[in-house]
Write a structure and sequence with these properties.
alpha/beta; binds magnesium ion; 7 strands; TIM Barrel
Length: 201
């Protein structure tokens, strides 16, 4: 979504919905391409397709706009992938600007910060759908009390020796230690600099 031609956007969604049938979960992602009036207008036109969510309808930092949109639509509003801290996410959460929170652990400062966010999101009864880096997020999402979504990307495959297991649309956690992944030789070959430090005392 998010093309200059809104009717083309809607035509595509209609075609995909018709192809999939009614029972298959479908979402759209506008990648912040709309202004507030456009997001509302397209959002209303999308209601009939029973989408799971509309992702990034507005500028990632437009908290008020997202809040207004979330109040105006029955379709869930998803956002958060661009934000870089717990504090930024909390602004969205507090304003009622998001139904499906999409934090990115590497972007918000790692696993500890992500877990703080997950606690806030659960406290506010939000759905969780982490953004990118599924190799990390599948573990974090599995620890969320509500059933989460995990975005599937194979872009990082060349970095690791292992592959995430997916069956029937579900990701399966490995029983290997830690994140269950080890760096591929190719990753080491791509490394341009290394450093060793003592563990913090
Ligand atoms: Mg996205």
């Amino acid at each position: 979504m998010g093309l200059p031609d809104r009717s083309e956007d809607l035509r595509r969604v209609a075609a995909v919905r018709e192809h999939l049938g009614d029972g298959v979960p479908l979402m759209v992602d506008a990648n912040q391409q709309w202004d507030r009036p456009t997001a509302l207008r397209v959002g209303r036109a999308l209601e009939e397709f029973d989408l799971v969510w509309i992702e990034e309808p507005l500028d990632a930092y437009d908290v008020e706009g997202h809040a207004e949109l979330a109040r105006s639509l029955t379709t869930a509003v998803a956002t958060g992938e661009m934000l870089t801290s717990v504090a930024e996410h909390y602004e969205l959460i507090r304003a009622g600007a998001v139904d499906v929170l999409q934090p990115d652990a590497p972007r918000v400062g790692g696993i500890t910060q992500f877990l703080k966010l997950a606690t806030l999101a659960d406290h506010h009864h939000l759905q969780l759908a982490p953004h990118f880096a599924m190799e990390i997020h599948v573990h974090l999402a599995a620890a969320y009390p509500r059933e989460p979504w995990v975005e599937h990307f194979d872009w990082l495959h060349p970095l690791f020796n292992e592959r995430l297991e997916t069956r029937d649309g579900r990701m399966h956690l490995s029983d290997r230690p830690g994140l269950g992944i080890t760096l591929a030789d190719q990753t080491r070959a791509w490394t341009v600099e290394t450093a060793t430090t003592d563990a913090p005392r």
